[in-house]
Design a protein that fits this description.
Blueprint: H1 2-40, E1 45-51, E2 53-69, E3 72-75, E4 81-86, E5 93-94, E6 99-103, H2 106-141, H3 147-180, E7 182-184, E8 189-191, E9 201-202, E10 211-214, E11 219-226, H4 230-238, E12 244-248, E13 255-264, E14 274-281, E15 293-310, E16 315-317, E17 320-326, E18 332-336, E19 338-343, E20 346-350, E21 357-361, E22 372-374
Parallel strand pairs: 1-22
Antiparallel strand pairs: 1-21, 2-11, 2-15, 3-10, 4-6, 4-9, 5-8, 6-7, 8-10, 11-14, 12-13, 12-15, 13-14, 15-20, 16-17, 17-18, 17-21, 19-20
Helix pairs in contact: 2-3
Length: 390
Amino acid sequence: MQPKTQTKKNKLVIGAVLVLVVIAGLFIFRGSSSHASAGMRGGAVPVTAATAKVGSLDLYIDAIGTVTPVSTVTVTSRVAGQITEVNFKEGQYVKKGDLLAIIDPRPYQAALEQAQGQLQRDLAVLKNAQLDLARYTDAYQQHAIPEQQYATQQAVVEGDAGLVRVDQANVAAAQVNVDYTRIVSPIDGRVGLRQIDAGNIVQANGSLPLTTITQLQPITVIFTLAEDCLSDILPSLNSGKALMAYAYDRTQQKLLGVGKLITLDNQIDVTSGTVKGRALFSNNEKLLFPNQFVNALLKYKTLDAAVLVPTIAVQMNNDQRFVYVVDKQNSVSIRPVKVVATEGDITAVSGIKENEVVVTDGFDRLITGTKVSIRQPSSDKSMNRSAGAP
């Protein structure tokens, strides 16, 4: 008898649970039905909205870039000797031709004077040989000397002339060495950390540089683009039209510079499906620093006279994009739209007109004919985007 009693108790418990579930479901259904029916009966649903406007929309390609100097020079000595002066400070901006350091020039000045003395001596020898040749020429024409003696003197003059040319080359080489004792900046740029101090002995073309100089103005940014972007870039690039480029910091909040795309690489990297581009920046504010990582924006197109709405207003249902349009009676209707282009929080669409109001928040209770109340219109500042800096 006990098993039967236990079975009855179990059935009673299960039945009670089912009754509670049904009652709870009825309450939930009535509650949701009352809310829905309230909306259908004219209870306004609170939403936020924005007004569609006609304007220009700049289209950009995002990329990660690296700041790359146009020129970077490692300054080394061309001659050996002791550094007597260092005329720059670390981090100093220098111009082309500015004196950076001086190497003891005395040994090279002495070699120059020796070469000049040798040249002077051989010039005198050449002059004497030319005078003898002139006398031999007169004597030969008068048949006073044999032709062999005359030809020999001609060879002597030519030999002395050759020695003079060697001496002149030695003087030029010695002068170059003297000039190399004054180390000057080959470019405009910023000096790096000093590697050698005054008093050190340096070797000619040694491995230890004095410093490095990096050109900062202008400067370039190299970034990678997906190969799919080429169809947007190449028409303008091939026609010679300059594409604007913008460099932002890591947070994409601070604009570091505005430049222009100057070239693309000559081939696509097949391993990544990307191509490199180089943009040139004047860097007047000196905010771009060599090897700095930046977020690059490349403006490749501007849509003019486009109908612009907030991107959040565009919804999708069964692969169809649409917006909720609010009429003058504050009723909503579903309007299919075609997305022309999207840039950030702004989307250019076709299918609606200027000044029509679209819902931007509160979609979950909306159907065609629902009355709405716009609790706080969205700011339209972002809709005034023009063809300028992003």
